[in-house]
Amino acid sequence: MSSPCINRASWRLLIFLIGSTLLGGLSQTANAAGMTRLQAIDIAVQSNKDLQAARYTVEQARARLLQAGLPPNPRLDIAARNDLIFRNQGEYAASIGISQQFSVVGRIAHQKEVARVDVALALAEIRQAELKLAGDVTSRFYRILALNRQIEVRERLMDVDQKLVLGTRNRFKAAEVSELDVNTAQLELQRLTQERALLLSQRITQLAQLNQLLGRPATQAIALNDALPASDSLPSLANQQRQALSSRPDLRFALLSANRAQANQALARVQRWEDWTVGVVLEQSHLVIDGGPSQGSSRALGLSLSIPLPLRNKNQGNIAEAAATEAQAYTRIEALKLSIGNEVASTYAETERLQQALSEYQRNMLALSARNVRLALQGYNQGLIPVGDVVRIQRQQGELNIAYLDTLDQYLQALARLHIATGDYAGYVPEQKTP
Length: 435
Hints:
The chain folds into two domains: 4-70 and 108-272 and 321-427, Outer membrane efflux proteins (OEP); 73-102 and 275-309. It is 66% helix and 9% strand. The protein has helices at residues 4-25, 37-47, 49-54, 56-68, 107-173, 179-213, 237-247, 249-270, 316-381, 387-421; strands at residues 75-82, 92-102, 276-286, 298-306.
């Protein structure tokens, strides 16, 4: 049988460990050697396979710009005729010439302008893809940080529960508690073990998805810097909305779409006049006159000019379509500005509420829960309360810590969405490229 002095000493140690568990669960110690969030975003932007494939759209647009600036090729015109299958008197005519189309209203220059805007559109589309990728990486990164803390809390609670189970079994042997108390403590330990296994599985999934975004094999080991972002007060909503309107790539894409519609409309107007064709022809012929003397061959140099006349087809359909596209683009810009403002406002409000909830956890609730656990263990040590109440109060503390970490996870996800909503790249600013 264990002596009362040994029991009291062991329970004092257990009380100390319970207090240390809470403090350890709230630790924000960072793994300084691990990959930071910004480093992860940079790696993803450089190495993500889908993004690498998408970047070829820019090369395609630049190729179209090159093609748009090329004039049409000259044409070689060859013609010949003779009377071989008719009278076969040796009469013939042959000509060779070259013709070239010329734009008289700047069609090629307008085509190049449309193609130049297409390059800018492709770059803006890549910027959108990079921003989305940065948001996905940030979301996965923060999710893993939250899972790490949830796993750590379970492990610390399991460590305490193991000691509680051991102490309860010793007291059961000393006939101080019942088998029900031993089973209650054992079941609590098994519950925490199952929860930890589930969280470990979720972390494996999140790490595999993060590796996929980074362009790496799913099973490649990755160590993350565990530091959380500073919980400073947020900038004002008005500043966030202004930043979103100046930084969002989807808004820039919409503005460029309007520019393209204007350039396309200008192109449609000049295309009312089709290209003129100028030709130079060298002709040689031989005529035969019935009853007349033999005629010699003659040569002639000809010049031709072909001018299409815009009488019925004045490209009015394409002009009207371009005008409607321009009006549609400006309407979409206004709708997108409203959507962006509302998105930033709702995400801002969500982030602010979660930040306040975290502050309430940290100021009052966690410390009060830890005190309840210490009081319960003291009462159990003195024989005033059963082990079931200790387990219940300890579970309450664990659930409160878990609720705190769930709130932390939601806050981090909302913060990531706020960064993306403002076009901030979550702190990552890529190199700005120009066509």
